[in-house]
Design goal:
The structure is a single chain. By secondary structure, the chain is of the alpha+beta class. The protein has one domain. 21% of the residues lie in helices and 37% in strands. The chain has two helices and four strands. It has a four-stranded antiparallel β-sheet with strand order 2-1-3-4, with helices on one face. The radius of gyration is 11 Å and the shape is globular.
Length: 62
Amino acid sequence: MRDWGLVAATRARTEPPTWVVTGRDPSAAARAARELRERSLAGHFAVAFDVGRPLSLPAGTR
C-alpha cells in the first residue's frame, strides 16, 4: 500500500459506533474520511484504501 487510508468502526454493546479515520499522512486520512459513506461500508466494519481503491474489511465477506 503506497498511499493508504483506513475508516473503521467500533462499538461497545448498545452504544452508537465510534468511527476511526487514519492514513499514511494527513491528506490520505482526509481522502479516507471522504469515503465514510454507507455504500463503501455496507456489511463491513472497516474499509482500507490504497491510492483511492477500496478494500472492505474483513476481506472476503459480504
